[in-house]
Every structure is written in C-alpha cells, then in structure tokens.
C-alpha cells in the first residue's frame, strides 16, 4: 500500500538527517522534495502546495524544541499534517435508524457490490447487526447475480426483483421487507456507469430523495488518483453524501486519492477496501494511515487484528500440550492458520514499524507458508505428533510427497525445535530466562 509515496517521503525527510538545527534553507530543501513526492503520488497541485506551506510555517516556529532532532521533528510535522489532511479523527457510520438505510453510490467497477458485501459481513460479525442487501442495478442482470453470490458467501439475505426496472420502487420494497422481517440495517447497492453521466446522477438522486438514507456512501477506486477526486466532487454536488469508501488500496502505490479526497469534498473517508475477499475491509483511521505512509508502522491495527483472530479455546489447548510436552506439527499448522486469518502477509509486515523499508524488494507473497503446509501435510499423524521419528528415509519420502527438498524439511524441523523450546521456557516460569536469552 502506498509504497512509492512512502519511499519518496522517506528520501525527502532524510535530507534533514545530520543537520544540527532547522534552518530556513534545509527546511525549504526538504519541503521541495516532500512536495515533489506528493505530486508524484497524484495529489492535486494546490493541496500539495498548501501542505508544504503549513509544514514550513510550523517547522520554522519550532526552534523551542531543541531537544528533538530536526529529522524527527520534520517527520512528526509531516505526519500531523497528513493526518489532518486525511480527516483528523476516524468517523463511524450512523446505525441509529430502525432499520438504518445505507445507500451505496459510485461508478461501475469501483467496488460497490464487493464493498456492500464486506460492509454487511462486518456489521454482522462485528456489530451484531442483522443486515439485508438490496440489489437495485436494473440494467445489468449480472450485477444482481453478483450480489446474490456475495450474500450467499457471507450468509446475508439479498432482496431483488428481477422483473422490475424501477430502482426507487425496488429500494422502497427492500426497506419494507427489512421492516417486516426484523432486519436492522439495509444496504442498497445501486447501478453505476463507466463515467459520470446525467441519467445515472438523476437516478441515484431520485433514490436518495425517495428513501432518505441515514448514510449515503460514495465508493471509489483509490488507484484512479485525481479522477477519483473529480468523480467524488461530481457525486457530492448531487448527493451531498456522508462518507467516502476507498477501495483497492492494496493495489495503490501512490495514495493521491486517499490524501486529497477529504479536503476536496470535505467528507471523511470511512472505510477502506484492501482486497477482493469479504474480510478485506478496515475502518479508516487517518493518523494510523499517516504513520503507515511514513514507515512508522501501525502497531495498533496489528494488535487489533491479532486480538480479533485470537482463538482462546485453541490457545488453551496448545498451552496444555506444551505443558505435557506434546506440542506437535498439527499444532504448528493450526498456528499458521491463525496467522493467515489475520490478513495478507505483506499487509501485516507493513504494520510493523520500519519493516516496510527493511523488507523492501523482498517478494513476500501469501504462498510463504505453502511449503511448510505441504511438508506437514505429507507427514503421517504419527510423525506430526512425534517429530523425533523423522529419520533420513522418512524425510526423503516427505520431500518427495510435498515437492520440497530435504534441506527445507531440516530447516522446518530446526524452526519447530526452536519454537518448542521457546514455548517451554515461557511456560515454566521461564519468562526471565527467555529475556536473558534475548539479551535483555
Ligand atoms: P461495482 O461495479 O462497483 O459493483 O464493482 P465490483 O464490486 O464488481 O468490483 C469490481 C472489481 O474490483 C471486482 O473484480 C472486485 O473483486 C474488485 N475489487 C473490489 N474491491 C477491491 C479491493 O479492495 N481490492 C481489490 N484488489 N479488488 C477489489
């Protein structure tokens, strides 16, 4: 996410490293590079200029803070300004209605249908809501099918009326259906066009007027940069929407839309889409995003994800096994599965401070565990629970069965051994011992 921008800002902010104090000259030099980085990221010229002017003003008024290194101070100022630009505090969505009606708007292909599913899934799993999805794209039967597929996948009912070509009537009928059947959130997926056109705008404006939703969300593909900002403006003029959903951030290396959209339409970014799967949705936190862009990591989100996926029952089982010296490869496999549930590895790495830069160029893909899993799957249950049994001939058989090599198996055994040792130490009141081992 935003790799190019991160790299360029990092370079720009390096200019100040090694300087003892902030002077007008080195600030100007740094900010020229920051501005260039923003322009390369497809941030609007005016916004980039305002941004650097604000940072400059603050930087030159900061000579009081002599204890801070200029480099660090500049990073902080840029971070604060980026946070401000992207919206300050995070904003939630209004779920107070009975039912709460959420209207989706945006161009075709922006990710509306996918996001409708993600939002329904999120509200169901995390907010204890009973959502209903309503299909209002009367032009493309495939769009209705797509929403049904999504609904089935996440276990959420989808309301549609294939013979009907009046989206206002369908959305009203959907809301009535929700009221009659105890749904407390209604998410209305509407038709989009490839570009802004009058008929589409009229149609969404009519739906909006007729159903008076609690939330009108504008969905936009982050990768389209300045076009995303212009489209947002066009939709906002007609709908005065409540929030922006930025999709496909996983493929966006530049970040221009994320940075400029709020200041152009003065509406917050509420959620982001970070993948095609139904759980690739995150609440948008401007300060966390600014930290990620500047390579400061996002430990808060990382811990939150770990907490969400943490399976207490499983952890207790594993603890017992470690205590009895029975931790085996099946448990190792289940640990890997838990990590995988937290999201794509690349995404997780990006949340570790400094890791983005350190791991740059390394191709971390989600197949990283594939070999390990293949090796474990090629073991017999007996070998999994008692790895000591793995002699040379067994290793040869496993290497063949998993399409790996003896070296890879030995490496895995070594890792497994280290992990078991560490776990035992943590178990046996050996926290202290471990800290010593780690040099603390
Ligand atoms: P709609 O026409 O606005 O309803 O757009 P769709 O929901 O059909 O999405 C268009 C394409 O973008 C589909 O192939 C989706 O899988 C893909 N997509 C949607 N959101 C994301 C995202 O956050 N990341 C990625 N990588 N792809 C996405």
Task: Explain the layout of strands and helices.
Elements: H1 3-14, H2 24-40, H3 45-60, H4 70-86, E1 100-105, H5 112-126, E2 131-135, H6 141-154, E3 158-159, H7 167-180, E4 185-189, H8 198-211, E5 215-221, H9 225-239, E6 243-247, H10 256-265, E7 269-273, E8 281-283, H11 286-293, H12 299-309, H13 312-323, H14 329-341, H15 345-350, H16 355-358, H17 370-377, H18 381-385, H19 392-402, H20 406-427, H21 431-437
Parallel strand pairs: 1-4, 1-5, 2-3, 2-4, 5-6, 6-7
Antiparallel strand pairs: 7-8
Helix pairs in contact: 1-2, 2-3, 3-4, 4-11, 5-6, 7-8, 9-10, 17-19, 19-20
Average of the residue pLDDT scores: 84
The molecules bound to the chains, other than polymers, are:
guanosine-5'-diphosphate
CATH architecture annotation of the largest domain: 3-Layer(aba) Sandwich
Radius of gyration: 26 Å
Distance between the terminal alpha carbons, to the nearest Å?
34 Å
Q: Kindly identify the CATH topology of the largest domain.
A: Rossmann fold
Extract low-pLDDT stretches. Answer: 429-440
Total count of domains: 3
Describe the protein in words.
This protein is of the alpha/beta class and 440 residues long. The chain has three domains: 84 residues, SRP54, nucleotide-binding domain (Four Helix Bundle (Hemerythrin (Met), subunit A), Up-down Bundle); 197 residues, P-loop containing nucleotide triphosphate hydrolases (Rossmann fold); 135 residues, 434 Repressor (Amino-terminal Domain) (Orthogonal Bundle). It is built from 21 helices and eight strands. It has an eight-stranded mixed beta sheet, sandwiched between helices. Helix 1 runs antiparallel to helix 2, helix 4 packs across helix 11 and helix 19 crosses helix 20. The longest helix is centred in the last third of the chain and has 22 residues. The two termini are 34 Å apart. The structure holds guanosine-5'-diphosphate (GDP). Guanosine-5'-diphosphate (GDP) binds next to helix 5.
